């Protein structure tokens, strides 16, 4: 110890302890986000759980709350419906795109084959026969599937073969709500690799799904599609209920490798079995915002009434000093049957009794801060949902540039979801349908069943959905023309993006129209347009 340390031993001890602490202190994230000593982080409760613990175990509660928000919260419903309408709309449309080079076909042969396939696919997809429940067309099934996936976290689709009179094809799509895929009542080793109704294989791949006969939340059997023996419970004389039972559905056919069931969900972690609702990270904000909106709405309704309170130093005195009689004749009263009601008449002057005064209830509504607060919360919600708040509210009050930026940002998410929907739902179902069409001889595709590479070449397809909105159609079309002229895009893609139409069909219609105009002696030239369209205030 130095001389100063001997003269001041306590400060010397503190310096010694500090130097010792520095020697054992961790660095890196331990001093920041992983710190266990910062007061701001001491109350942060967290745990490193597996995907099953963090996600799958909590999915039932998240699913319940997400559905409740969709049914009762306007903003939650608007967000999900906005995504569904822009991603799928009336349904993604098939645009067959086979690999003509690999198949040794000319362009004309490939075009003729693709047109035939699209025509045949429409015979199946555009009728309700494609639905196992005979309720929806294929486009409507897509819309319901993505809405259910976003609302519940995931949705399942079985692909049964059901023969029906008058139907050319036997493939059906049967949507299953996520609740029906759940754990069967098993014990011990039977459940070692089964959790949340999904049975995993050696490498973590789903090998089977355990499907309940009817919805676990239902009090009775509402689906009688399976034939088996059931155990009845309750009073034999009363209407009998049946106990639920589960069917094990293999993910793939043992010999054919055919997909028996599709699981539509967006994983956010490796080894994740079940999905989470889209609204999961913003549930609390949406619920609280709904409560706040209800409270403000009720306050505004109350402020719309003329509510008066009579203050009196004599509680036993009659109201308004009139001995309990009405201020207006009985014939003109709205509620003459109620002796306790006091009705005010037009232009009346009422003398109060001694000691009485009138206070008018004024809740101070509407609240001028309501709109700004709601918008502030919606900006955070929109950030989490990748959906600008302008689209949730369907309210565009910004400049052209700001509104267009919001739409472009939203369409990044819409296109990503559309691609995911096409790859995980539409394309697998289309491939199953095409296999049936080839097997029945309605589509000629040599080598389809003999070589997987040839089958993939025949199965190529693109899926087009609703076009993005256009704030300034003239600018959008001009940009599309430049992209096509410079080789950055094709007419087929630009036609689909701008109008959602098929360029090939549109071109044939236009050719027929132009021929008819020439035969009628009409001009076929297009009108001149201004080179520079008017600019909005921000761009001037």
Keywords:
540 residues, four-stranded antiparallel sheet, 17 helices, extended
Low confidence ranges: 224-240, 321-326
Q: Which strand-content bin applies to the residues?
A: 5-15%
Query: Which secondary-structure class do the elements indicate?
Result: alpha+beta
| Rg over CA atoms | 34 Å
- The CA-CA distance between the termini, in Å, is 76 Å
Give the strand order, joined by hyphens, for the main sheet.
4-5-6-9
The total count of strands amounts to: 13
3D architecture notes:
- The protein is 41% helix and 9% strand.
- The protein has 540 residues and is of the alpha+beta class.
- It has a four-stranded antiparallel sheet with strand order 4-5-6-9, with no helix packed on it.
- The longest helix is centred in the last third of the chain and has 40 residues, at 400-439.
Secondary-structure map:
Blueprint: H1 3-7, H2 9-24, H3 39-42, H4 51-54, H5 59-72, H6 74-87, E1 93-96, H7 100-103, H8 107-125, H9 138-152, E2 155-158, E3 174-177, E4 194-195, E5 198-200, E6 206-212, E7 232-233, E8 241-242, E9 246-250, E10 261-264, H10 283-303, E11 308-312, E12 356-360, H11 370-385, H12 389-393, H13 400-439, H14 452-458, E13 461-464, H15 473-485, H16 491-499, H17 503-519
């Amino acid at each position: 110890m130095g001389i100063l340390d001997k003269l001041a031993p306590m400060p010397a001890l503190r310096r010694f302890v500090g130097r010792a602490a520095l020697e054992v202190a961790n660095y890196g994230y331990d001093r920041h986000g992983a710190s266990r000593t910062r007061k701001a982080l001491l109350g942060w409760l967290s745990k490193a759980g597996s995907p099953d613990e963090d996600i799958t175990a909590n999915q039932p509660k998240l699913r319940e709350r997400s559905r409740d928000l969709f049914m009762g919260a306007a903003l939650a419903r608007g967000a999900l419906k906005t995504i569904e309408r822009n991603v799928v709309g009336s349904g993604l449309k098939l645009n067959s795109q086979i690999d003509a080079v690999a198949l040794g076909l000319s362009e004309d042969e490939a075009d003729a084959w693709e047109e035939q396939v699209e025509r045949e696919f429409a015979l199946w997809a555009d009728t309700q026969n494609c639905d196992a429940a005979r309720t929806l067309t294929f486009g409507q099934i897509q819309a319901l599937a993505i809405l259910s996936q976003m609302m519940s976290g995931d949705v399942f689709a079985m692909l049964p073969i059901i023969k029906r009179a008058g139907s050319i094809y036997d493939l059906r799509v049967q949507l299953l709500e996520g609740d029906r895929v759940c754990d069967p009542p098993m014990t011990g080793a039977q459940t070692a690799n089964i959790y949340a109704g999904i049975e995993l294989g050696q490498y973590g791949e789903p090998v089977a799904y355990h499907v309940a006969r009817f919805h676990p939340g239902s009090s009775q059997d509402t689906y009688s599609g399976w034939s088996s023996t059931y155990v009845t419970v309750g009073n034999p004389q009363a209407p009998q209920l049946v106990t639920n039972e589960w069917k094990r559905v293999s993910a793939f056919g043992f010999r054919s490798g055919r997909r028996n069931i599709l699981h539509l969900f967006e994983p956010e972690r490796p080894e994740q079995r079940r999905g989470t609702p889209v609204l999961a990270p913003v549930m609390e904000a949406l619920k609280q915002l709904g409560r706040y909106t209800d409270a403000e709405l009720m306050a505004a309704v109350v402020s719309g009434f003329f509510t008066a309170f009579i203050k009196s130093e004599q509680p036993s005195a009659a109201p308004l000093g009139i001995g309990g009689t009405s201020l207006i004749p009985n014939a003109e009263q709205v509620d003459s049957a109620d002796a306790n009601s006091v009705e005010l008449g037009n232009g009346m002057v009422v003398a109060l009794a001694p000691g009485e005064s009138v206070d008018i209830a004024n809740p101070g509504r509407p609240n001028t801060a309501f709109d700004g607060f709601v918008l502030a919360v919606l900006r955070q919600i929109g950030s989490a949902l990748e959906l600008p708040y302008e689209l949730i509210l369907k309210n565009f009050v910004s400049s052209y540039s700001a509104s267009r930026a919001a739409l472009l940002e939203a369409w990044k998410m819409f296109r990503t979801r559309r691609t995911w929907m096409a790859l995980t739902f539409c394309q697998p179902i289309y491939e199953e349908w095409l296999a049936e069409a080839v097997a029945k001889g309605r589509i000629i595709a040599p080598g389809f069943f003999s070589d997987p590479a040839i089958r993939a070449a025949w199965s190529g397809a693109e899926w087009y959905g609703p076009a993005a909105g256009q704030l300034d159609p003239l600018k959008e079309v001009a940009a599309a023309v430049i992209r096509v002229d410079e080789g950055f895009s094709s007419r087929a893609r630009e036609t689909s993006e701008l109008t959602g139409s098929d360029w090939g069909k549109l071109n044939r219609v236009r050719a027929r129209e132009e021929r008819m105009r020439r035969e009628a002696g009409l001009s076929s030239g297009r009108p001149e347009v201004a080179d520079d369209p008017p600019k909005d205030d921000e761009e001037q």
